[in-house]
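Exercise 7.
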Amino acid sequence: MPSQISKDLLRIPSQNGSPINEYRIHEGEIEFRALNTLGQTFSPMTEGWRTLDAADIQLHFALNTTVAKWLVERLEALAHNA
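Solution. The predicted structure, written as tokens, is:
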């Protein structure tokens, strides 16, 4: 089950040895990184966050993923606070 660590960070835990996926909103961008089952980066080469492009984000919405639902919740919260 995904957990929202903070309002701008979503963590999707490992299932059956799969990587932990983290998504964050940082400086107006949606970023992603994968961690091993212990919550550590796989290697220094994969340590950083990767910015999702428009196609990545569209795919999340097309597939109605947990990430898409989290983004909708964030947008709704921003709209209510505006």
